[in-house]
Design the sequence.
């Protein structure tokens, strides 16, 4: 892993105050103002007698001032441009430009041992729905149990099978409540229907003693299934809820 190093910036030196230079500058400014005033006075007097040449002289003076202003702007741009190019791209050493070293991009290393990381760690790799739809039913139950264990559940067990009576994963939630989950790894075009909810609702509370009962699927639920779940207090986790839970951007069923 590469740690970027911030290079210190060279401090900018401020010119020292000079009383002599200030006095000379004011003197030159006063002479210039006086000269311009006398020139304008002579020009106004001459313009009354000879208006044609006065106009020509005025135009010449205006063009000369425009050229001086343009050169002054170009000089200021030329003085500032080399510093910007040097600081951004290269450094000059003994009169020879030396290119600045490339900045290496910091890329997080892949997580190899997730069990060695603290519980609050969040894997930066996104969780895709395809990761679950490509599993078989047993692998999907193990994956859901792993999510429960990751988020602080205790006594997590995968009990799905031929005689599971509707329960695939049982655990104790972090707040101490009994959790029972039924896992439905369905394709996107196959929804969990009301009959699936009715079979689970007939056993999750009375047989398994669930405080929190949830059906987690890679697909979606029909409207009758959701209506039955609302009446019985069963939580419906569709594919969006599952991906949110797995990626840490959404709540867990017991939350």
Sequence:
């Amino acid at each position: 892993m590469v740690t970027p190093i911030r290079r210190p910036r060279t401090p900018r030196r401020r010119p020292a105050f000079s009383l002599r230079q200030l006095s000379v500058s004011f003197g030159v400014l006063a002479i210039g103002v006086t000269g311009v005033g006398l020139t304008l006075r002579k020009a106004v007097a001459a313009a009354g007698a000879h208006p044609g040449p006065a106009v020509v002289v005025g135009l010449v003076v205006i063009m000369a001032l425009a050229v001086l202003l343009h050169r002054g702007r170009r000089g200021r741009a030329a003085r500032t441009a080399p510093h910007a190019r040097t600081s951004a791209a290269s450094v000059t050493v003994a009169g020879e430009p030396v290119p600045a070293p490339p900045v290496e991009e910091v890329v997080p290393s892949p997580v190899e041992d997730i069990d060695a990381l603290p519980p609050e760690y969040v894997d930066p790799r996104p969780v895709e729905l395809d990761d679950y739809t490509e599993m078989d039913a047993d692998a999907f139950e193990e994956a859901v149990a792993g999510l429960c264990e990751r988020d602080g559940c205790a006594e997590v067990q995968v009990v799905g099978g031929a005689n599971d009576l509707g329960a695939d994963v049982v655990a104790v939630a972090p707040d101490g409540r009994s959790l029972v989950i039924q896992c439905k790894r369905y394709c996107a075009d196959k929804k969990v229907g009301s009959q699936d909810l009715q079979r689970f609702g007939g056993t999750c509370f009375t047989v398994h003693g669930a405080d929190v009962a949830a059906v987690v699927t890679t697909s979606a639920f029909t409207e009758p299934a959701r209506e039955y779940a609302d009446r019985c207090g069963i939580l419906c986790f569709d594919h969006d809820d599952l991906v949110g839970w797995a990626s840490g951007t959404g709540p867990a069923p017991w939350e």
